[in-house]
Structure formats: C-alpha cells, structure tokens
Amino acid sequence: MCGIAGVLHLNGAPASVDVLKGMTDAIAHRGPDGEGRWTEGAIGLGHRRLAILDLSEAGHQPMSTPDGRYTISYNGEVYNFREIRTKLETLGHEFHSTTDTEVILHAFVEWREKSLCFFNGMFAFAIWDNKQRELFLARDRYGIKPLYWSLKGNIFAFGSEIK
Questions:
Q1: Nearest-CA neighbor of 76 among 161, 154, 1?
Q2: How far apart, in whole angstroms, are the C-alpha atoms of residue 4 and residue 15?
Q3: Which of 42, 52, 64, 156 is the most exposed place for a label (fewest CB within 10 A)?
C-alpha cells in the first residue's frame, strides 16, 4: 500500500523531522517494511514503505537523484515502468534500482509534468525540485491512490490520509 506525507513552510521556516515522524507514524499501517524522512530547509517529505518491487535498500524513500536536485516520495504502481525505463535509458539516464519509483523520478527529470502522460497505473507522489524550489504533487487520473492536502496559514501539508 505505502503512504506519503509532507510539509512545506511557505514562509521559509525549517521543516521539522519530528513533525514528519508524527505524520509517518500516523500512517504506519500503510507501510510496515520501512519508513523514511527527508528535510531540506522549508520542505520535508516522509514515506512509509510496503516493499513489493526491489526489496533492497536501493528502493528506500524518499529517493533523490544522484545530484540531489530532485527528491520523491511515492505511493503506487506504474504498470508500464519497464517500457518507460527503456526509453529513458536510450536518452542517457542511469538507474540504481529496479523500482518504478526511480523511473517516475527520472521521467519527471526528463519531461517534467508531461511525464504523467506516460504513466499507466495507480499512484500519488510528491517531487521537490531543490534548484527551482518547487513542489510538484500528482495522483493517478481516477484517484485510486489518495492524495490529500491542506493549507493552514503558511504551512502546506499533504499525505495519503487526512490524519
């Protein structure tokens, strides 16, 4: 099942690892195989993992590109990720895992929001662009994988569940 959570302080205040821990603890039932938290200034991403593809640590999330520019927290399954990966490899992308998470991340690097047109599956994810200081959230067309968000004052929060 997996679960994602995150917070962005619009006023630039630092994201708290303790707050992220509370968010991921609240959705612990979504991912008993692991958890992860990542913060960089005002942004924080959290993840609960139900390991299905690539059970190794290479599939741990949140996952960042090797240069650290992009970081993703992802829930779901993209059924055609192998075909997308093959296309990305012909464009010069290198992969370090066999996960669909890494394919989504590289597809976003290559095609930005147009990458959504390639994905056949059920998904919800957040990608932070550290260079542009932009947060991108997306979910599948039918909303099979939930993605809730809230704006309260200067705090934008999101997750797989309202909790």
A1: 1
A2: 16
A3: 52
Residue type, 49: R
- The encoded tokens of residue 10 equal 């619009």
Q: What is the pLDDT of residues 45-68, one digit of tens each?
A: 999 976 665 556 777 889 999 999
Q: Which residues contact 64 (CB under 8 A, 6 or more apart)?
A: 38, 70, 71, 72
Give mean pLDDT in consecutive 10-residue pieces for the chain, a chain of 163 residues: 93 96 93 87 91 64 95 96 98 95 98 98 97 97 95 97 89
Residue 2 known to be catalytic: yes
Helix or strand or coil: residue 108?
Answer: helix
**How many Å apart are CA 157 and CA 12, to the nearest integer?**
14
| Cα separations in angstroms, 132 against 127, 128, 136, 161 | 12, 9, 11, 27
Catalytic residue, chosen from 2, 5, 23, 43, is 2
Sign of the CA dihedral running 12, 16, 19, 24: positive
